[in-house]
Amino acid sequence: MAETKILSGKTVSQDVYNSLKSRIDKLKSSGCIPGLAAVLVGDNPASHVYIKSKTNQFAKLDLYSESFKMLDDTSERDVLSLIDDLNNDERFHGILVQMPLPEQLNETAIIEAVNPLKDVDGFHPENLGRLTAGHPRFIPCTPKGIMRILEYYKIDPSGKHVVVLGRSNIVGRPVSILTSLKKSFSNATTTICHSGTKDIPYYSQQADILIAAIGVSEFVKAYHIKDGVVIIDVGISRIEDDSEKGYKLVGDVDFDSVKDKASAITPVPGGVGPMTIAMLVENTVEAAKRSIS
Ligand code: GUN
What we know:
Blueprint: E1 5-6, H1 9-29, E2 35-41, H2 45-60, E3 64-70, H3 76-87, E4 94-97, H4 107-113, H5 125-132, H6 141-152, E5 161-165, H7 172-180, E6 189-193, H8 200-204, E7 209-212, E8 230-233, E9 237-240, E10 247-250, H9 255-258, E11 264-265, H10 272-292
Parallel strand pairs: 1-11, 2-3, 2-4, 5-6, 5-7, 7-8, 8-11
Antiparallel strand pairs: 9-10
The protein binds guanine.
């Protein structure tokens, strides 16, 4: 079989930044610097890393961003009050609240408090509803990034069987909607598997495109897939090893197990991760553009 193609999110994200450059310059010359407010509650170490990567990317592109870090025991009232301030602050065209939130906070209430026109994560029910109805405003960043990788590498889901592992509101559910929309570079037959699915291999073995967003490290093995499948690996977790760093990053797919069977696969790291950030920048630029037009 031909060698497995590596679908590099780093390459595709660079392409996104290149094409955003002229849009950003245009906004800046009309006095508008796209701005992001990143809200982080608590001390989840992975969330701190994500927020830093996001704000670093904004700085690299000379865009405005600020992170708002709140203690783990912050009350819902205080989070809602911050969101209200950010909704009314013209420097911020986009607001994101990093997930997961500490237990005492009601995720739904907090997501619904963000002005839908600043909801660059696309988590607000108004934006999810629009996506479901096929006329999206903001598309959640990771699903949007997955579609962009497929498009860049000319892997057209139309007429194919896409199997999504995981039904989270952040990835699994929206990507299942996106892949099955009646439009170009979608139009797939999509199946969602989740913790209630009785026989995951039965479905995953039928996938032409398999999207693994199940949150279990190295879950997908050779026996889950058929020859020639395209695999998008959304997972990222640390597992300890005896390297100098003491750990390595792995996805939801056991790369070594599947690599001789899949026709193409996103690596971890350097696959979906960089695309999530690129789509956050793109959504914030779109939000800024809408705010002045
Ligand atoms: N947690 C995991 N992925 C995401 C994301 O894309 N946005 C936010 N806000 N939280 C997340």
